[in-house]
Write a structure and sequence with these properties.
By secondary structure, the protein is an alpha+beta fold. The chain is built from four helices and ten strands, in the order E-H-E-E-E-H-E-E-E-H-H-E-E-E.
Amino acid sequence: MASVPPTGRTRVRRLPQRAVYHRDDIYAILDEGFLCHVGFVIDAQPFVIPTNYARQGDEILIHGSAASRMVRALAAGVDVCVTVTLVDGLVLARSPFHHSVNYRSVVILGKARLVSDPGEKLEALRCLTDHIVPGRWDEVRQPTEQELKATSVLSLPLAEVSAKVRHGPPVDDQSDLGLPVWAGVVPLRSLPGAPIGAEDLMPGTPPIDLNRFDRRRP
């Protein structure tokens, strides 16, 4: 898949060697994450709201209460900045100045649209649900008309987007290499724990398969 041409707003200027513009790499970061942060401005007041999301083709989907400030603002066409960040490790150097974090991040800019077509909205909600747990949509009760009315879905095109990635060991000053201080990388990874079933589960309900939550890269 081709790269996304950087714009004046998405071109990485600080440490440009960490920039990633290839769609496959950008989409892989989005597909692995759960949480995004949505930034927007209302009456000169900036807001940054954490929420879950899903990627559907060349767009990112966000949903929320139809009455929420974020949903109403984005549906009205305000400029929006959506970010997703995955932390892969802590980079410990021999000097605090060179401590860092290994990460993969994506920044998306643009204007969102309200998904109003009923069929498209239902498919978007399926995508959002299955992004959390693959196949979940087909095994749960489908939303009622009242639930659909109370929920809005927004779509943001992945047209003005870029990623930034930091990986590898610390970069210490040559003069610090002789210090007896441990330096290296402590990998971090999000893994599912043992499921805790609801107290009111129906008897005989099969347990959830933890393999469905595995988002680890090969």
